[in-house]
């Protein structure tokens, strides 16, 4: 996990320096600062920092992974990767909700955006609590 954290930290530094340099260099041109590119670089740096921070937080709670060893073999990473629901419709319904939000944003229909956002909240809750609903077992 430490290698992945270092990758995202390096990406953050690279994108932040690139964004600042891009904003400065376009600001010295005759047309002024090009805000779209500058914003894109700065937001990308922020997203890299967000992912790196999350990975750093998770790395403290888990043991060292095979990716962190210099002499690790491929077989060291073998085994169960986690539980993935084989029959869940919630990811499809979440994607459809996001599609509805994007459709509403494209045509700027606020009522479609609100309906898609409500559908997204419901489908996210359905995905998260999929295996926690049911009859109480006391």
Automatic annotation (TrEMBL):
This is Cytochrome c oxidase polypeptide 4. The chain crosses the membrane at residues 7-25, 37-55, 89-106, 112-133. Part of cytochrome c oxidase, its function is unknown. It comes from Dietzia aurantiaca. Signal peptide: none annotated. Keywords: Cell membrane, Membrane, Translocase, Transmembrane, Transmembrane helix. It is found in: Cell membrane. The lineage of its organism: Bacteria, Bacillati, Actinomycetota, Actinomycetes, Mycobacteriales. Belongs to the cytochrome c oxidase bacterial subunit CtaF family. Its EC number is 7.1.1.9. It is a multi-pass membrane protein. The keyword Repressor does not apply. It comes from the Bacteria. The keyword Membrane applies.
